[in-house]
Amino acid sequence: MPSLNITLVSGPPGAGKTTWIRQQISSAAETAVYLNLGSGNTPNDFRRACAIDPTYLAAEVAGLTVLPVEQLTDFLAHPLAGSAVYVELGFHIDLTSLILPDQMADCQRVAVLPPGTRHTEWHGWADLVVTGVETGAVLSQPHLWRSVLSGQVLDLASLNTFWYELTHGAYGTVQRAKGIFDVADGRSLHFDFVTGLAEATYLELNLPRWLNGRPDRFSGIEVVGEALEQEAIAQTIKECCLNDQAIAYYQQQIKDSLDPGDEVA
């Protein structure tokens, strides 16, 4: 059986885990495999994988294999020869009680931490500590909220207003927010916010424009913060979503303006 080259990556929200993994994948000669663990209802429930980071990496890194959580057992039994596997752990996973399959016992453990971080559980867990980005003050009771928006199409102007409000405290203290949204012109946009960093604009993912009805691909939002007004967040996002008639109108407008060679879905 081929040997497994597995790296576990952990750290607080917004420190740069996904960014570090992308850098390693981009500079490696091996075939790369990515798995995101730790997005269930309980700290060590791996049944539901967070799809924002996998979707982002799959769109932006050519040749990357994104491994669904439910396929992990089969993959470990029949791994890709010569592959480098990067497993991103959710920040809320209790590392002291984390139980991994026997095939992952010899993996490398990497902690991506904000500058100046000292004496944390990650230091005792990691084989290698990497300096990431500043994430602002540590929250005393961080809460994770997420919503899947697959099939929804959002008005970009309304989305921009909502994102500004979200990241400026209108719905509670936000330390980390990220999302992938399909908008009316067919693009899939990746939004990313970490408190303390410079304001960042959205990134258009390297995906075909979706111009035929409601998109059949992942979109969603994830927020880490304190005293989050979840119902207000959910309601405001709902108000950003377009109905079928509006979606059809805007998609037809875009299709009429595109060149024949433009890639659409």
From TrEMBL:
It comes from the Bacteria. Residues 152-240 form the CobW C-terminal domain. InterPro entries: CobW-like_C, P-loop_NTPase. This is GTP-binding protein.
